[in-house]
């Protein structure tokens, strides 16, 4: 390779990054600024210039998709032997190789999902949890292990971290300890323990450390704002006393703090390495100026450490349409209208796979699945089984590989479709969700054949089989010709021509569980990530009630203030949760007692609650407690019910601000309490406080 030719086509900032061949290097890269292009060209330039060999490079990222994309780009740049892997993939490779030497005996079985073992551990502790509760518990265990918190330290650690446990903290600690015991007794290994063991192996065995560090001398870490303490521990073990490391990231795309990620390693990189090179990428090649203005505006009033490193994006694309801000009476109306707008975009020429509907919680997906189905628009939901692990895809890939020898002279696309037809690829999608999902998977393979044929006219079945083999090896799934439905967390790293951000109301964006300033700021960054997924068309919408004819008590998200037309100023609104002093709403005195702060009045000041409402709340509580076979105070204490009767909250956001109404109780009892406050009877499914919609899923 000619080193100079590798650098062709880079902008000045990307060129600066690619020419910084020796570490430490920190690349602060805003959304859509070409960070993958910059780091892959930097790697290829280092190889071409003789600074390092391909085999000595380890490029680490967070998803198999990103690693696959990086390997694909490096192949095209003439560096196909560079190792581009996730932390987990690199760790399991090293641990497996050195296990006989370092530890000996049979290698533990790797746990792909914790849920089953967590369920058994919880049961052993006498905890009866539904699937939502088990997912929450598994998330707490992952956070604890990622931040190096042991079961014995869990209770004090979450206080220090300002974290709210999804259940009594001692129950989490007991289940965590039981889970760890099960893994030890049954020779099981989860992803976190795998990283920890790999780091320990390198630290405790000098010969292994020498071999690993001799193999890998040149490191690149993508999405460095998402690194957690355990991953940093492993990276430091790989590095040893060297500093030839290039880190890339954007502090304002930190959206996984709940899982232990911290932007501190990125924002503090210059302090850790005073002689480092820092490059800022701000030229946005993804989005139109109209979308970029919304993105910059979304962070204008951000606060905290991440905001101190905010990058002001500079749009490079021509003008596009103005973003749409739309308010609806209710959620079904919002979903129906969005589906119609999507159908119109498709009719106007936007491919369905270039359109996405993004929402805060996975529970919001159902309304849009139904609306798109009613409109006759194909869609796919992100977060399902990995593409190449699906049974129908394994069968299809095996069949396609076998057909490469006997393929005739028919065009590639028609040949592939003929082969897939007996497996279920009909001209039109079938009825039924499972049948449709199978059809969608096969249709994605057919679409991949079309992409290969378009990129390489005259491509044969051999060419297609080679492309399949490369994608299977890198888990690089093809795109399906359908609208994408995804949570904002799962949309990270992706982009579409048209993005519909839906459900933008207080309580959903920011989510009601975001109580501290830091949590609200993370929600703001999540909103920013959603905005920056759009290349050209951006639609932002919200509804005033959940169902037709319901109370129109919802408020548009505070993150829309100053962005949408005629919205209030942002000034001062985000300070609402910072106040430490609580004053009596009757006499104005400062309140210090917990019970008084809950009621927002002095104990001897006259109460102004609705006595009839309080009695109805107590009667409902009694019924819920009887159904769940728990004491009444477990549902709500008398003081909390009195506070509810005094405040009479009209929506989830207001209810969540009442002390004693935490995340779990909001999920279980929120709808029933709001119905009672509105003078209505709770729905049958809400009366007993049994979750029926699933709690918020932070990320998939």
How is the secondary structure organized here?
Layout: H1 3-6, H2 12-19, E1 25-29, H3 35-48, E2 57-61, H4 64-76, E3 83-86, H5 87-102, E4 109-110, H6 115-124, H7 131-146, H8 154-161, H9 169-185, E5 188-189, H10 191-204, H11 206-215, E6 218-221, H12 229-239, E7 245-249, H13 264-267, H14 269-272, E8 277-281, E9 283-284, H15 289-298, E10 314-315, E11 324-328, H16 331-347, E12 355-359, H17 365-374, E13 379-381, H18 391-402, H19 412-420, H20 433-455, H21 461-474, E14 483-487, E15 496-501, H22 517-531, E16 534-543, H23 594-599, H24 611-628, H25 632-635, H26 638-647, H27 652-656, H28 663-677, H29 684-687
Helix pairs in contact: 2-3, 5-10, 6-7, 6-9, 10-11, 10-12, 15-22, 16-17, 19-20, 24-26
Q: Could you describe the 3D structure shown?
A:
This protein is of the alpha/beta class and 700 residues long. It is 46% helix and 10% strand. It contains 29 helices and 16 strands. The strands form 4 sheets. Strands 3-2-6-7-1-8 form a 6-stranded parallel β-sheet, sandwiched between helices. Strands 11-16-15-12-14-13 form a 6-stranded parallel β-sheet. Strand 2, helix 4 (64-76) and strand 3 form a beta-alpha-beta unit. The radius of gyration is 27 Å and the shape is globular. Mean pLDDT is 84; it is low at 569-581 and 691-700.
Question: What is the overall shape?
Answer: globular
Arithmetic mean pLDDT = 84
Number of helices: 29
Q: End-to-end distance, in Å?
A: 40 Å
Helix content: 40-55%
């Amino acid at each position: 390779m000619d080193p100079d030719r590798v650098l062709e086509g880079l902008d000045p900032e990307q060129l600066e990054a690619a020419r910084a061949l020796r570490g430490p290097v920190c690349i602060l890269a805003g959304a859509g600024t070409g960070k993958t292009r910059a780091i892959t060209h930097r790697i290829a330039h280092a190889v071409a210039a003789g600074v390092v060999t391909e085999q000595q490079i380890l490029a680490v990222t967070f998803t198999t998709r990103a690693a696959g994309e990086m390997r694909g780009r490096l192949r095209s740049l003439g560096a196909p032997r560079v190792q581009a892997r996730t932390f987990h993939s690199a760790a399991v490779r090293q641990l497996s190789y050195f296990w006989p030497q370092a530890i000996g005996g049979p290698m533990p079985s790797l746990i792909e999902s914790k849920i089953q073992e967590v369920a058994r551990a919880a049961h052993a502790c006498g905890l009866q949890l539904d699937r939502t509760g088990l997912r929450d518990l598994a998330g707490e265990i992952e956070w604890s292990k990622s931040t190096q918190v042991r079961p014995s330290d869990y209770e004090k650690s979450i206080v220090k971290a300002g974290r709210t446990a999804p259940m009594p903290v001692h129950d989490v600690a007991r289940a965590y300890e039981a889970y760890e015991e099960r893994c030890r007794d049954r020779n099981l290994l989860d992803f976190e323990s795998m990283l920890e063991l790999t780091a320990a192996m390198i630290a405790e065995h000098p010969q292994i450390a020498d071999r690993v560090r001799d193999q890998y001398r040149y490191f690149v870490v993508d999405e460095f704002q998402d690194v957690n303490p355990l991953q940093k521990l492993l990276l430091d073990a790989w590095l040893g006393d060297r500093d030839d490391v290039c880190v890339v990231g954007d502090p304002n795309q930190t959206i996984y703090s709940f899982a232990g990620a911290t932007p501190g390693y990125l924002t503090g990189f210059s302090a850790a390495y005073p002689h480092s090179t820092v490059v800022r990428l701000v030229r946005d090649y993804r989005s139109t100026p109209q979308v970029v203005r919304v993105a910059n505006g979304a962070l204008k009033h951000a606060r905290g450490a991440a905001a101190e490193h905010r990058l002001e994006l500079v749009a490079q694309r021509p003008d596009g349409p103005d973003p749409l801000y739309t308010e609806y009476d209710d959620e079904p109306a919002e979903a129906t209208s969005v589906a119609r707008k999507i159908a119109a975009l498709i009719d106007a020429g936007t491919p369905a796979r270039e359109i996405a509907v993004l929402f805060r919680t996975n529970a919001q997906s159902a309304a849009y699945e139904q609306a798109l189905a009613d409109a006759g628009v194909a869609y796919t939901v992100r977060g399902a089984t990995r593409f190449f692990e699906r049974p129908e895809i394994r069968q299809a890939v095996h069949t396609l590989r076998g057909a490469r020898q006997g393929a005739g002279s028919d065009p590639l696309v028609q040949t592939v479709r003929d082969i897939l037809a007996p497996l279920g690829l009909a001209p039109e999608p079938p009825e039924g969700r499972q049948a449709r999902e199978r059809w969608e998977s096969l249709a994605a393979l057919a679409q991949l054949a079309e992409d290969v044929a378009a990129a390489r006219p005259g491509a044969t079945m051999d060419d297609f089989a080679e492309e399949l083999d490369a994608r299977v090896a890198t888990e690089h799934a093809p795109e399906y010709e359908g609208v994408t439905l995804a949570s904002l967390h799962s949309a990270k790293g992706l982009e579409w021509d048209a993005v519909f951000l839906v459900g933008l109301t207080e309580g959903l964006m920011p989510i009601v569980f975001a109580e501290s300033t830091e949590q609200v700021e993370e929600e703001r960054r999540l909103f920013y990530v959603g905005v920056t997924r759009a290349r050209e068309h951006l639609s932002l919408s919200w509804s005033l009630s959940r169902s037709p004819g319901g109370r129109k008590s919802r408020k548009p998200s505070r993150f829309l203030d100053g962005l949408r037309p005629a919205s209030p100023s942002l000034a001062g609104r985000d300070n609402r949760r910072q106040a430490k002093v609580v004053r009596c709403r009757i006499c104005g005195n400062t309140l210090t007692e917990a019970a008084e702060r809950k009621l927002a009045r002095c104990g001897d000041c006259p109460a102004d609650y609705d006595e009839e409402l309080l009695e109805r709340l107590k009667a409902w509580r009694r019924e819920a407690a009887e159904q769940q076979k728990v004491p009444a105070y477990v549902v709500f204490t008398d003081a909390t019910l009195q506070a509810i009767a005094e405040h009479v909250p009209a929506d989830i956001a207001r209810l969540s601000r009442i002390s004693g109404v935490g995340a779990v109780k909001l999920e279980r009892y929120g709808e029933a309490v709001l119905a009672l406050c509105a003078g209505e009877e709770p729905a049958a499914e809400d009366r007993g406080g049994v979750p029926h919609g699933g709690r918020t899923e932070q990320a998939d």
